[in-house]
Every structure is written in C-alpha cells, then in structure tokens.
Design brief:
2 strands, single chain, 73% helix, two-stranded antiparallel sheet, mainly alpha
Length: 567
C-alpha cells in the first residue's frame, strides 16, 4: 500500500460521509434555514455575534484541532496503520462528526446554551451541575496541558532548535495585532470579506517571514516566562468580544492550517511515500491492549469530547444561519480526520513500528517533530532544496503551535463560561447570594480559571496528558447522551447515538480504571510520586463518578418516559 492510495481512499470516504450521512442527520433533526439563530436573537456584541460561514468554519476548525490529530495517530501507530485508519474514518464519520454536529444543533435550539445548561432543561438541575463540574475539571487539564505545549514551542533557553522556536514566537505575537485589525475592518468598517481575507493572508505570511528573519531569543526566553505570557494572553482573550480577537485570529490562522494540510497532501501525492509501517501489530503491543488504548490515543483524530464544548460553547453563539450547521459542525470534524490520516501517512513513511526510524534505526522524536520532518522529507524528495525544506519544517512547526494556541484560548473562554454558569442566579431567581454573584462575575471567573490552570501547568503537559486523553474522550459520553435525550424529548430520531455513546463509555471508563490501578500501584510500590501519580488519582475519582452518574441519569430518561424540552 502506498501513501497516495491511503490518502485518496480516505478523501473519498470522508466526502461520501459528509454528503450522505451528514445530509441524512440534517434532515432527520430538522435543520431549518428560515429559523432565527441565537447569534441574531441574543446578539450582544461580545459572545453572541453572527459570523459569516467561512469565518465560523475557520474559527471552529482551528479551535477543535489542537495537537490531537497530529499527536494521536502517530502515537497509536504502534498498533499498525490499518486499525488506526479504520478508527479515524469510521469513528470520525459515525461518532466524532455526529457528536460535534449534534452539540451545535442542540445548543442553537436552546438559545446558544452549553451542553450543561441543556442537561438542566431536559434532565434535571443536578445533572447540569454534575456535567458542569465534570467538564470544568477536564478543561482545567486542557488549559494547563496546552499552555505548557505552546510555551515549549516559544522558548529558546535550552531548546534543541532555539532559532525555530524563536521564529514561532515572533510570528505568533505578530498574528495578534493582525487579527485585531482584520476584525475591526470586517466587523466595524464592513470591508468585503474576500478582499479582507486576501489582505489578511498576505500579511499573515509577512508575519511568518519576519518570524523567520527575527526570532525572539535571549536569556529571558524560558518556559516559565512564556507560560506567564500565554496565560496573560488567554485571560485577555477570554473576556474580549469575539469579533475583536477570537473570530478573526482563528479565521486567519485556519488558512495557515489549511496550507499545512494542503502542503502535506501535495507532498504525499507527488512523492508517493512508501508505507513502511506494519499493517497490524497485534491486539497487545508492549503493556498496552488495542482496546481501549488505540481508541483513547487517537483522540481528536476520530472523536473528542472537547469538541462538543466548543460547538455548544462558542460556535453556537456565532452561527449566522442553521443551513451552515452541517458544514461547521460535521464538516470541520471531517477535515480534522483528514489531518489525522495525513499524520498517519507521515509516521508510516518514516517508521516500520511507530517507534524507530527505518532510515537510521534511531528512536523517533515527538509526534510534532515526526510530522514536520516527514513533510520536509516529502518536499526534498520532490526536488526542493535543503534550505526550502528547513523553511517548510519551521512553518509546519508554527502551524502546529497555532493549532494548540487556538484551542487554548477557546478553552479558557469555555472554562470561564462554565464556571459562571455554576454560580449564576437560577432562572426565576431575583438575585444570587453575594458570593455566588461575585464568582459568576466575568473577570473573577476568568482569574479563578486561569489561576488554577497555571498551578496545574507547573507539572508539565507530560504529566497531565496521561489523564487528559481518557477524560477528553469521556466528555463525549454525556454530550452524546444530552443530544439523544433532547431529540427524544422533541420527538425526533435519536437512536443513532446509542452505539457511539456506549462504545465511548466502555473505552474511556475502562482506560480510567486501568490508569487508576497503574498509578495506585506505583504509589504503593514507592515508584510513583504523590505530586504526579497521586494528583492523577485524585482527578480520576470525581471525574469517573460524575460521568457514570450522568450516564445512569440519561439512560433512565432514554429508556423510560419522555421528558419535555423546548423545540
């Protein structure tokens, strides 16, 4: 099997999935282009802001992608390329895209409310609070892990490639004023989107060129310094009106991400790399079993619970027309699946077992380095110069950093929303208790969210990522359940959620149990540390219990009498 054959088969499968299954879901759920969306009904100029479909697609795709579709398939490749490819395509079309699309649909039919708020409507207030606490804990892990990843792509003191890291830092900082200018001209001066986009993309690449020419380096450029800068930026971004920074930055960054996918696809098509990776390595590799490890490790490349929080947290508040819901919710996930396939081809071209290089026999680097190095190799094989290959490596690294940063600032905003919802006055309640009122304040909620994430970040993403993977997948279970319960309550078809919901519950919960046992044994044997394995055990218990309780509550309604909800 060659890389180009895998790519073409995947593209055909994803396009067919979008047209037929996505179209079928839209019809069954009743997508209505004439219906007024929350972005118009509740427009406030801060969170509820109508966005043109291409802008919202860019924001949504950039926010959901993160580093998952690159890291996940490359790490899961130890099981062979066939099971990874099948899970990316089947899981992406029938679980991941369904979750993202349904979360967006259910939210826009409930005034742009989050999945937690919807649970309060269709189940009960106890479920709302359980889900909100559950997802808030998970988002703290996301904030901490992604902030550390971004900071480690910017620092130069002690970096293996300080110039490349410094270039990424310079270009990323220059993106911010560019995004603000773009948002001002498009939303306040009503400049044509096409003209503004062309100008914005040109300036975007000028910023990249300046980054390559003037990398930020120096004794101050440490990981701790960039962690602080990243969290300050996230604090500001999470309270700034979305049209000023979030929408335009993610939209412009999406072109960098599309370029990365396009460049990788071109490299695969014209260099047609051989697939050195074994098709199937077995049901057990090392100490890990195919189930549940592969389905948790691939993560965002097939399904990610975090996506449902974005769909119902920020995207639903910006959807201009329901007819765009399929393109944004279902389509963006399939683009991410394509990136996951490309990542798989990258590692398959340089490795025979997902661990060591077929060229040197040495252990491969981080997934991001494997991805960037493979694409650099594609262009060298096409006849490009070595210097051009190095530029490609730096630009790809910058794009990966952009993935992480867009997910991070969106997640910080979602964490702020969720924290506020936990303490806000209940519907019909005249006023909340002064303490609750203070904690539901936008700026207080932001400081609490950012502060706790910063404390967790000190442990580093390597510590947090072990727990993040399973927890991230577990979020999909109550998200799918909430959509099913809502659709049942309004008399719409909802049985397409059952298999995805129970499969993801089995995979993610079993992985949490395995992780807890592993960490507990390490603590008992004295090989683990209380500030690492102990911390992970502390997080696992409440997250598992909350998710299990939500699943039980949802099943009572799904397989019992109907509930009432707003249509």
């Amino acid at each position: 099997m060659s890389g180009i054959v895998i790519l073409l088969i995947s593209i055909v499968a994803l396009v067919l999935g979008y047209i037929f299954y996505g179209g079928w879901l839209a019809k069954k759920w009743g997508i209505d282009p004439s219906r007024k969306t929350p972005a118009h009904e509740l427009e406030d100029g801060v969170d509820y802001v109508p966005a043109k479909a291409p802008v919202l697609l860019g924001h949504h795709f950039a926010s959901i992608a993160g580093a998952g579709p690159i890291n996940g398939p490359i790490q899961a490749a130890v099981f062979g390329w066939v099971p990874v490819l099948l899970w990316v395509l089947l899981g992406g079309i029938f679980i991941g895209a369904v979750q993202d699309f349904s979360a967006l649909f259910v939210s826009i039919r409930n005034k742009g409310k989050s999945i937690g708020e919807v649970m309060g409507n269709v189940l009960n207030q106890r479920c709302k609070y359980m889900f909100s606490i559950f997802t808030w804990l998970v988002m703290l892990l996301v904030d901490a892990a992604f902030a550390d990843i971004v900071a480690k792509t910017f620092f130069s003191v002690g970096a293996s490639n300080p110039a490349a890291n410094g270039s990424v830092a310079t270009a990323s900082i220059l993106f911010i004023p560019l995004a603000i200018a773009f948002g001002f001209f498009v939303y306040r001066k009503h400049a044509p989107l096409v003209v503004s986009t062309i100008a914005g993309v040109v300036v975007l690449f000028v910023a990249i060129a300046l980054g390559l020419k003037f990398p930020i380096q120096g004794s101050f450029s440490t990981v701790a310094f960039w962690r602080a800068i990243v969290f300050i930026y996230c604090a500001i971004a999470s309270v700034t009106p979305v049209w000023i920074l979030l929408q335009p930055r993610d939209y412009l960054n999406s072109f960098l991400l599309y370029l990365m996918i396009g460049a990788a696809a071109i490299g695969i098509i014209f260099s047609n790399p051989a697939v050195n990776l074994t098709p199937f390595a077995g049901f057990k590799v090392g100490n890990s079993f195919l189930f549940p490890t592969l389905f948790i490790t691939v993560a965002c490349g097939a399904v990610s619970g975090f996506h449902s929080l974005i769909s119902s947290g920020t995207t639903a508040k910006q959807l201009d027309n329901e007819k765009s819901a399929k393109m944004v919710g279902f389509g963006a996930m399939l683009i991410e699946c394509l990136l996951a396939v490309i990542s798989l081809i990258c590692v398959a071209s340089v490795s025979a077992n997902g661990v060591t290089s077929v060229a040197t026999g040495e252990k491969l680097g981080t997934p991001s380095i494997v991805f960037a190095s493979a694409i650099e190799g594609f262009f060298l094989n096409m006849g490009f110069s070595e210097s051009a290959g190095k530029v490609a490596f730096t630009v790809i690294s910058l794009a990966v950093s952009a993935f992480c940063l867009t997910s991070l600032d969106t997640c910080c905003r979602l964490g702020r929303f969720t924290f506020q919802e936990l303490f806000a006055a209940k519907e019909g309640e005249e006023d909340a208790h002064p303490v609750r009122k203070a904690l539901s304040n936008t700026y207080v909620a932001t400081l609490v969210n950012i502060g706790l994430a910063a404390i967790l970040c000190v442990g580093g993403y390597a510590t947090l990522w072990k727990l993040f993977g399973a927890c991230n997948q577990l979020v999909s279970v109550p998200a799918l359940m909430a959509a099913a319960v809502y659709l049942k309550s309004v008399g719409k078809k909802h049985n397409m959620f059952y298999i995805p919901m129970f499969f993801m519950a089995a995979a993610s919960m079993s992985q949490l149990v395995i992780s807890f046992v592993t960490y507990a044994k390490a603590l008992i044997n004295g090989t683990g540390a209380w500030n690492v394995e102990g911390l992970l055990c502390v997080f696992i218990v409440p997250i598992f219990c909350l998710a299990f309780s939500l699943l039980v509550e949802g099943c009572k309604v799904l397989f019992g009498k109907k509930t009432q909800a707003a249509a």
